[in-house]
Sequence to fold (307 residues):
Amino acid sequence: MIAELVGRLRQGDRNALARLVSHAARGEHLTELQRALTPSLTPARVVAVTGSGGVGKSSLIGKLISVLRSQNHRVAVLACDPQSPLSGGALLGDRFRMGSTTDDGVFIRSLAALTGHGAVADHLDVVIRLCEKFGFDVVILETVGSGQGDVEVRNLADVVVLLVQPESGDDVQWEKAGILECADVVVVHKADLPTAEQTAAQVRAALDLSPGRDVPVLRVSTKANQGHAELWQAIVALPLRRRQPSPACMLMQSLSDILSAQFREKESAPELAKLAEAWQRGEITEAEAVEKLVRILLMHQPDEPEA
Ligand SMILES: Nc1nc2c(ncn2[C@@H]2O[C@H](COP(=O)(O)OP(=O)(O)OP(=O)(O)O)[C@@H](O)[C@H]2O)c(=O)[nH]1
Ligand SMILES: [Mg+2]
Fold:
Protein backbone atom coordinates (compact mmCIF):
# COMPACT_ATOMS: atom_id res chain seq x y z
CA MET A 1 0.00 0.00 0.00
CA ILE A 2 2.77 2.43 0.95
CA ALA A 3 4.75 1.67 -2.21
CA GLU A 4 1.64 2.32 -4.28
CA LEU A 5 0.97 5.61 -2.47
CA VAL A 6 4.59 6.68 -2.98
CA GLY A 7 4.19 5.86 -6.67
CA ARG A 8 1.19 8.15 -6.84
CA LEU A 9 3.03 10.80 -4.84
CA ARG A 10 5.78 10.83 -7.47
CA GLN A 11 3.14 11.40 -10.14
CA GLY A 12 2.04 14.52 -8.27
CA ASP A 13 -1.06 13.15 -6.52
CA ARG A 14 -1.77 15.56 -3.64
CA ASN A 15 -4.17 13.17 -2.01
CA ALA A 16 -1.38 10.58 -1.80
CA LEU A 17 0.92 13.24 -0.33
CA ALA A 18 -1.62 14.16 2.35
CA ARG A 19 -2.21 10.52 3.29
CA LEU A 20 1.48 9.68 3.43
CA VAL A 21 2.21 12.75 5.55
CA SER A 22 -0.50 11.65 7.98
CA HIS A 23 0.97 8.15 8.19
CA ALA A 24 4.48 9.49 8.75
CA ALA A 25 3.34 12.04 11.34
CA ARG A 26 1.61 9.27 13.30
CA GLY A 27 4.71 7.10 13.06
CA GLU A 28 2.98 4.49 10.90
CA HIS A 29 4.70 2.37 8.22
CA LEU A 30 8.01 4.10 8.89
CA THR A 31 10.21 1.26 7.66
CA GLU A 32 8.32 0.99 4.40
CA LEU A 33 8.42 4.74 4.00
CA GLN A 34 12.17 4.88 4.63
CA ARG A 35 12.66 2.22 1.98
CA ALA A 36 10.43 3.80 -0.60
CA LEU A 37 11.89 7.26 -0.12
CA THR A 38 15.22 7.03 -1.89
CA PRO A 39 17.24 10.24 -1.68
CA SER A 40 16.31 12.90 -4.20
CA LEU A 41 18.57 13.95 -7.02
CA THR A 42 17.40 17.50 -6.48
CA PRO A 43 17.08 17.95 -2.73
CA ALA A 44 14.76 20.69 -1.52
CA ARG A 45 16.11 23.68 0.35
CA VAL A 46 14.87 23.21 3.92
CA VAL A 47 14.48 26.45 5.86
CA ALA A 48 13.59 26.45 9.56
CA VAL A 49 11.89 29.55 10.94
CA THR A 50 12.24 29.72 14.70
CA GLY A 51 11.63 32.28 17.43
CA SER A 52 9.54 32.70 20.54
CA GLY A 53 5.75 32.56 20.53
CA GLY A 54 4.07 35.52 18.85
CA VAL A 55 7.23 36.85 17.17
CA GLY A 56 5.40 36.50 13.85
CA LYS A 57 6.73 33.27 12.35
CA SER A 58 3.48 32.29 10.63
CA SER A 59 2.83 35.80 9.33
CA LEU A 60 6.34 36.11 7.93
CA ILE A 61 6.16 32.68 6.29
CA GLY A 62 2.91 33.74 4.63
CA LYS A 63 4.67 36.63 2.92
CA LEU A 64 7.70 34.53 2.10
CA ILE A 65 5.41 32.15 0.23
CA SER A 66 4.37 35.01 -2.08
CA VAL A 67 8.00 35.90 -2.79
CA LEU A 68 8.82 32.26 -3.52
CA ARG A 69 5.80 31.74 -5.76
CA SER A 70 6.69 34.84 -7.76
CA GLN A 71 10.03 33.11 -8.46
CA ASN A 72 8.25 29.88 -9.42
CA HIS A 73 9.40 27.90 -6.42
CA ARG A 74 7.10 25.17 -5.15
CA VAL A 75 6.75 25.50 -1.40
CA ALA A 76 5.73 23.18 1.41
CA VAL A 77 5.23 24.64 4.89
CA LEU A 78 5.31 22.26 7.85
CA ALA A 79 4.11 24.08 10.95
CA CYS A 80 4.99 22.24 14.13
CA ASP A 81 2.37 22.66 16.77
CA PRO A 82 2.49 21.78 20.47
CA GLN A 83 -1.14 20.69 20.32
CA SER A 84 -2.68 18.00 18.25
CA PRO A 85 -3.52 19.50 14.87
CA LEU A 86 -6.82 17.68 15.19
CA SER A 87 -7.85 20.17 17.84
CA GLY A 88 -8.15 22.61 14.98
CA GLY A 89 -7.67 26.04 16.45
CA ALA A 90 -3.96 26.53 15.86
CA LEU A 91 -4.13 24.90 12.47
CA LEU A 92 -6.85 27.19 11.22
CA GLY A 93 -5.17 30.20 12.78
CA ASP A 94 -1.88 29.42 11.04
CA ARG A 95 -3.53 28.81 7.70
CA PHE A 96 -5.31 32.10 8.05
CA ARG A 97 -2.14 34.03 8.80
CA MET A 98 -0.25 32.35 5.98
CA GLY A 99 -3.02 33.33 3.60
CA SER A 100 -5.51 30.73 2.48
CA THR A 101 -4.38 29.18 -0.74
CA THR A 102 -5.76 27.12 -3.55
CA ASP A 103 -2.40 27.36 -5.29
CA ASP A 104 -1.10 23.99 -6.50
CA GLY A 105 2.48 25.03 -5.84
CA VAL A 106 1.86 25.43 -2.11
CA PHE A 107 1.25 22.83 0.60
CA ILE A 108 0.64 23.88 4.21
CA ARG A 109 0.35 21.35 6.96
CA SER A 110 0.30 21.57 10.77
CA LEU A 111 1.96 18.70 12.59
CA ALA A 112 1.71 17.82 16.25
CA ALA A 113 4.88 18.20 18.30
CA LEU A 114 3.77 16.21 21.30
CA THR A 115 6.59 14.15 22.67
CA GLY A 116 9.04 16.82 23.69
CA HIS A 117 11.38 16.30 20.73
CA GLY A 118 12.49 19.87 21.05
CA ALA A 119 10.80 22.33 18.78
CA VAL A 120 9.66 20.07 15.96
CA ALA A 121 7.10 17.38 15.23
CA ASP A 122 7.96 13.69 15.39
CA HIS A 123 9.17 11.99 12.19
CA LEU A 124 9.59 15.38 10.55
CA ASP A 125 12.54 14.03 8.58
CA VAL A 126 10.27 11.58 6.77
CA VAL A 127 7.64 14.25 6.14
CA ILE A 128 10.31 16.52 4.63
CA ARG A 129 11.39 13.74 2.29
CA LEU A 130 7.79 13.15 1.23
CA CYS A 131 7.48 16.81 0.29
CA GLU A 132 10.77 16.61 -1.58
CA LYS A 133 9.63 13.53 -3.54
CA PHE A 134 6.40 15.26 -4.44
CA GLY A 135 8.45 18.01 -6.06
CA PHE A 136 8.54 20.89 -3.60
CA ASP A 137 11.90 22.57 -3.97
CA VAL A 138 11.54 24.66 -0.82
CA VAL A 139 10.36 23.23 2.50
CA ILE A 140 9.77 25.71 5.33
CA LEU A 141 9.59 24.44 8.90
CA GLU A 142 7.86 26.58 11.50
CA THR A 143 9.13 25.40 14.85
CA VAL A 144 7.20 25.46 18.09
CA GLY A 145 7.70 28.92 19.52
CA SER A 146 10.40 28.10 22.01
CA GLY A 147 13.21 29.70 20.04
CA GLN A 148 15.68 27.62 22.03
CA GLY A 149 18.79 26.39 20.34
CA ASP A 150 17.70 23.08 18.98
CA VAL A 151 19.96 20.42 17.55
CA GLU A 152 17.09 18.60 15.89
CA VAL A 153 16.16 21.68 13.87
CA ARG A 154 19.75 22.17 12.78
CA ASN A 155 19.99 18.57 11.63
CA LEU A 156 16.82 18.79 9.61
CA ALA A 157 17.24 22.18 8.00
CA ASP A 158 19.77 23.68 5.61
CA VAL A 159 19.21 27.12 7.03
CA VAL A 160 17.94 28.25 10.44
CA VAL A 161 16.28 31.68 10.46
CA LEU A 162 15.82 33.10 13.96
CA LEU A 163 13.17 35.77 14.51
CA VAL A 164 13.46 38.25 17.38
CA GLN A 165 11.24 41.23 17.97
CA PRO A 166 11.94 44.78 19.13
CA GLU A 167 10.14 44.46 22.47
CA SER A 168 12.64 41.91 23.68
CA GLY A 169 15.21 44.74 23.84
CA ASP A 170 15.36 44.93 27.60
CA ASP A 171 15.95 41.44 28.84
CA VAL A 172 17.47 40.16 25.59
CA GLN A 173 16.44 36.60 26.24
CA TRP A 174 17.84 35.37 22.96
CA GLU A 175 21.27 36.46 24.04
CA LYS A 176 21.14 34.80 27.43
CA ALA A 177 19.81 31.53 26.15
CA GLY A 178 22.55 31.30 23.55
CA ILE A 179 20.01 30.81 20.83
CA LEU A 180 21.91 33.05 18.45
CA GLU A 181 24.41 30.21 18.23
CA CYS A 182 22.01 28.15 16.17
CA ALA A 183 20.98 30.85 13.73
CA ASP A 184 22.28 31.21 10.18
CA VAL A 185 20.24 34.37 9.65
CA VAL A 186 18.73 36.62 12.32
CA VAL A 187 15.60 38.60 11.48
CA VAL A 188 14.52 41.52 13.63
CA HIS A 189 10.85 41.11 12.82
CA LYS A 190 8.09 43.70 13.26
CA ALA A 191 10.62 46.28 12.06
CA ASP A 192 7.73 48.75 11.82
CA LEU A 193 8.00 49.08 15.62
CA PRO A 194 10.14 51.96 16.92
CA THR A 195 13.03 50.12 18.61
CA ALA A 196 13.82 47.75 15.72
CA GLU A 197 17.11 49.42 14.79
CA GLN A 198 18.27 49.32 18.41
CA THR A 199 17.46 45.62 18.65
CA ALA A 200 19.31 44.94 15.39
CA ALA A 201 22.38 46.70 16.85
CA GLN A 202 22.15 44.57 20.00
CA VAL A 203 21.96 41.39 17.95
CA ARG A 204 24.97 42.44 15.86
CA ALA A 205 26.93 43.21 19.02
CA ALA A 206 26.06 39.82 20.50
CA LEU A 207 27.07 38.07 17.26
CA ASP A 208 30.38 39.92 17.24
CA LEU A 209 31.23 38.04 20.42
CA SER A 210 31.50 34.82 18.43
CA PRO A 211 34.12 35.61 15.82
CA GLY A 212 34.41 33.64 12.60
CA ARG A 213 30.67 33.58 12.07
CA ASP A 214 29.16 35.79 9.46
CA VAL A 215 25.48 35.86 10.32
CA PRO A 216 23.34 38.35 8.41
CA VAL A 217 20.99 40.47 10.54
CA LEU A 218 17.98 41.77 8.64
CA ARG A 219 15.02 43.93 9.52
CA VAL A 220 11.71 42.68 8.19
CA SER A 221 8.18 43.94 8.67
CA THR A 222 5.36 41.73 7.58
CA LYS A 223 2.87 44.41 8.53
CA ALA A 224 4.58 46.93 6.22
CA ASN A 225 5.35 44.20 3.67
CA GLN A 226 9.08 44.96 3.75
CA GLY A 227 12.22 42.85 3.67
CA HIS A 228 10.91 39.43 2.61
CA ALA A 229 12.64 39.38 -0.78
CA GLU A 230 15.91 40.44 0.87
CA LEU A 231 15.45 37.68 3.45
CA TRP A 232 15.09 35.09 0.69
CA GLN A 233 18.22 36.45 -1.02
CA ALA A 234 20.15 36.06 2.22
CA ILE A 235 18.86 32.49 2.58
CA VAL A 236 19.86 31.37 -0.92
CA ALA A 237 23.29 32.93 -0.49
CA LEU A 238 24.01 30.34 2.22
CA PRO A 239 25.37 26.90 1.37
CA LEU A 240 23.12 23.85 1.68
CA ARG A 241 24.07 22.11 4.87
CA ARG A 242 22.36 18.77 4.54
CA ARG A 243 24.14 15.87 2.91
CA GLN A 244 23.95 15.56 -0.85
CA PRO A 245 23.12 12.17 -2.34
CA SER A 246 26.12 9.92 -3.03
CA PRO A 247 27.33 9.44 -6.62
CA ALA A 248 26.11 5.81 -6.56
CA CYS A 249 22.71 6.97 -5.46
CA MET A 250 22.61 9.57 -8.20
CA LEU A 251 23.52 6.95 -10.78
CA MET A 252 20.75 4.63 -9.63
CA GLN A 253 18.28 7.47 -9.49
CA SER A 254 19.03 8.46 -13.06
CA LEU A 255 18.78 4.85 -14.10
CA SER A 256 15.30 4.47 -12.66
CA ASP A 257 14.29 7.76 -14.24
CA ILE A 258 15.48 6.92 -17.76
CA LEU A 259 14.51 3.25 -17.65
CA SER A 260 11.04 3.53 -19.02
CA ALA A 261 12.07 5.88 -21.82
CA GLN A 262 15.35 4.39 -22.98
CA PHE A 263 15.24 0.69 -22.31
CA ARG A 264 11.62 -0.20 -22.84
CA GLU A 265 12.23 -1.87 -26.19
CA LYS A 266 15.32 -3.74 -25.20
CA GLU A 267 15.80 -7.30 -23.96
CA SER A 268 17.45 -6.08 -20.80
CA ALA A 269 14.47 -3.91 -19.82
CA PRO A 270 12.71 -6.34 -17.45
CA GLU A 271 15.95 -7.09 -15.63
CA LEU A 272 16.78 -3.42 -15.30
CA ALA A 273 13.28 -2.58 -14.15
CA LYS A 274 13.46 -5.33 -11.53
CA LEU A 275 16.82 -4.06 -10.39
CA ALA A 276 15.61 -0.48 -10.04
CA GLU A 277 12.56 -1.63 -8.13
CA ALA A 278 14.63 -3.75 -5.76
CA TRP A 279 16.86 -0.76 -5.11
CA GLN A 280 13.92 1.57 -4.60
CA ARG A 281 12.41 -0.83 -2.10
CA GLY A 282 15.72 -0.93 -0.25
CA GLU A 283 16.24 -4.66 -0.82
CA ILE A 284 19.74 -4.13 -2.17
CA THR A 285 22.32 -1.49 -1.39
CA GLU A 286 23.45 1.14 -3.86
CA ALA A 287 26.79 -0.61 -4.31
CA GLU A 288 25.12 -3.95 -5.08
CA ALA A 289 22.71 -2.23 -7.44
CA VAL A 290 25.47 -0.53 -9.38
CA GLU A 291 27.42 -3.79 -9.66
CA LYS A 292 24.35 -5.63 -10.98
CA LEU A 293 23.59 -2.77 -13.34
CA VAL A 294 27.03 -2.97 -14.90
CA ARG A 295 26.71 -6.77 -15.29
CA ILE A 296 23.35 -6.53 -17.01
CA LEU A 297 24.56 -3.83 -19.37
CA LEU A 298 27.73 -5.76 -20.25
CA MET A 299 25.78 -8.93 -20.84
CA HIS A 300 23.32 -7.34 -23.23
CA GLN A 301 25.49 -4.88 -25.06
CA PRO A 302 26.95 -7.06 -27.88
CA ASP A 303 23.56 -8.53 -28.74
CA GLU A 304 21.80 -5.24 -29.07
CA PRO A 305 22.90 -3.15 -32.02
CA GLU A 306 21.02 0.09 -32.39
CA ALA A 307 17.85 -0.29 -34.47
N1 LIG B 1 3.71 45.18 14.34
C1 LIG B 1 3.79 44.03 13.70
N2 LIG B 1 3.06 42.96 14.12
C2 LIG B 1 3.17 41.80 13.43
C3 LIG B 1 4.02 41.67 12.31
N3 LIG B 1 3.95 40.40 11.86
C4 LIG B 1 3.07 39.76 12.66
N4 LIG B 1 2.58 40.59 13.62
C5 LIG B 1 1.62 40.24 14.67
O1 LIG B 1 2.23 39.37 15.61
C6 LIG B 1 1.27 38.46 16.16
C7 LIG B 1 1.80 37.04 16.14
O2 LIG B 1 1.96 36.60 14.80
P1 LIG B 1 2.12 35.09 14.39
O3 LIG B 1 2.48 35.08 12.96
O4 LIG B 1 0.97 34.28 14.82
O5 LIG B 1 3.36 34.66 15.29
P2 LIG B 1 3.99 33.19 15.51
O6 LIG B 1 5.43 33.41 15.83
O7 LIG B 1 3.67 32.32 14.35
O8 LIG B 1 3.22 32.70 16.79
P3 LIG B 1 3.17 31.19 17.37
O9 LIG B 1 2.92 30.26 16.22
O10 LIG B 1 2.02 31.22 18.32
O11 LIG B 1 4.47 30.95 18.07
C8 LIG B 1 0.00 38.66 15.34
O12 LIG B 1 -0.90 39.42 16.10
C9 LIG B 1 0.47 39.43 14.11
O13 LIG B 1 -0.53 40.28 13.61
C10 LIG B 1 4.78 42.84 11.89
O14 LIG B 1 5.56 42.85 10.93
N5 LIG B 1 4.62 43.98 12.63
MG1 LIG C 1 2.67 30.43 14.26
The radius of gyration is 22 Å.
